[in-house]
Specification:
21-stranded parallel sheet, Pectate Lyase C-like, Elongation Factor Tu (Ef-tu), domain 3, single chain, mainly beta, 2 domains, six-stranded antiparallel sheet, about 425 residues
Length: about 425
């Protein structure tokens, strides 16, 4: 494997680092090693296939640059690889930007790299994701992931400190298009030893990805979720991670996030601890601590048939001190969820508002929820559930990382 170790001079700007990454990727891939440094980025760093980006732990700091907003000068339509702006001051090719409006969100936001700047227009490396109409306040912003990858494989990010400086970024990064660390339609990804904080958006997110391992990382004090595997991502391991102080969930399973293991990790002081929803099935959560979150420690959120949550297993976890200001219990299961196992967990209430809530709150519409050897104390009651929602015997399921056959990938691009 090629290894390119950069000096502080060679890593003096995001543009220089990106140039090195691109050169190593063009040569077949390898390791790009950053020195001890403290660098403010004016663009995100894009990884190519076969690239391993490595720092020196807490001694290599990458900071998000201040956010800027550029109003569009008029309507512009889906698929165009350019955008009209009232001003292009400070923009240059190679910078990463996002296009937003007041109406859209999700995948209708556009994240792209500038390819050219001319008069009051800029070029983008791909077409915009929707129509942007003047009445909806369309604008281009310098919201971007600090590190990202699209349509690549065999990549790694290791031993870095990332700081988002959300106070300097009034426009947040849309969760479907970015996060402080973000991957899209990619495979064979490893992230380890990354400490991230204070991003206006999510800490780590990925969409339409497979075969991902996240180890020994911290994501804290972000405005959105701490961790967000989404949009059909499959065969993923989270191990020894911390997610705390985030404005939304510590861990958010998004649509059809399947065959995921979350183990030996901690989710504390978030709005919700762990949230599981639409088509999030065959997932395993084990030996985790879910503590002091404002809402439920574990929420199985509304997901009516045929996209209901099923076939998940939570075991050996400590779920305590949650639901002080929201949530219906330490564990809350709603709508049509079924075939869930909660086994050998320690569940504790919270002094004040959380103490009067049950350990398990299960709506009457849920079915085949199996509770086994859970130690519940300090709650208003152990379980609030109708008899028909509970199963005396455990459903037989295969779940988690490296479970299932090759058919678990057939919904993903080839």
């Amino acid at each position: 494997m090629t290894t390119k170790e950069l000096s502080t001079t060679e890593a003096g700007s995001a543009r220089q680092i990106q140039q090195c990454i691109d050169e190593v990727a063009a040569g077949g891939g390898g390791r790009v090693v950053l020195p001890p440094m403290d660098l403010t980025l004016d663009r995100g760093l894009a990884l190519g296939s076969g690239i391993e980006l490595v720092g020196q732990g807490e001694n290599t700091i990458l900071r998000k640059g201040p956010g800027r907003i550029y109003p569009l000068s008029g309507y512009h339509n889906y698929g165009m690889c350019d955008v009209p702006l009232q001003s292009t001051s400070g923009l240059e090719p190679g910078m990463t930007v996002s296009v937003h409006d007041d109406k859209g969100g999700g995948f209708s936001e556009t994240f792209a790299t500038i390819t050219w700047v001319e008069d009051h227009w800029i070029g983008l490396d791909h077409g915009i994701e929707t129509d942007y109409r003047q009445a909806d306040n369309p604008r281009l912003t310098t919201a971007y992931p600090l590190i990202f990858a699209h349509d690549v494989s065999n990549i790694a990010v290791r031993d870095l400190r990332l700081e988002g400086h959300k106070a300097d970024n009034e426009e947040s990064m849309g969760a479907c298009r970015g996060a402080a660390v973000y991957f899209y339609r990619s495979a064979a990804i490893e992230v380890s030893g990354v400490s991230e904080c204070d991003y206006d958006g999510e800490g780590l997110g990925f969409q339409i990805c497979r075969d991902v391992v996240i180890r020994n990382c911290t994501f804290r004090d972000n405005s959105g979720n701490g961790l967000h595997p989404g949009a059909g991502s499959t065969n993923v391991l989270f191990e020894d991670c911390d997610s705390h102080g985030n404005g939304n969930c510590g861990f958010f399973f998004c649509v059809r996030a399947n065959h995921i293991s979350v183990r030996d990790s901690r989710f504390t002081g978030n709005r919700t601890g762990i949230s599981i929803g639409t088509r999030d099935c065959y997932n395993l959560i084990e030996n985790c601590t879910v503590d002091g979150n404002a809402g439920a420690g574990i929420l199985v959120r509304s997901s009516p048939r045929p996209v209901e949550v099923h076939s998940c297993h939570v075991r050996g976890c400590t779920i305590a001190g949650n639901a002080a200001t929201g949530g219906k219990g330490q564990i809350e299961i709603v709508t049509d969820a079924h075939d869930l196992i909660f086994e050998d967990n320690t569940v504790r209430g919270r002094e004040g508002g959380g103490a009067c809530k049950p350990g398990f709150f299960i709506e009457d519409t849920a079915r085949d929820i199996h509770l086994q050897n859970n130690d519940v104390d300090g709650c208003g009651q152990e379980v609030e559930a109708a008899a028909q929602s509970l199963a005396l015997t455990a459903p037989v399921i295969e779940c988690g990382y490296e479970s299932g056959t090759d058919t678990i990938y057939r919904h993903l691009p080839a």
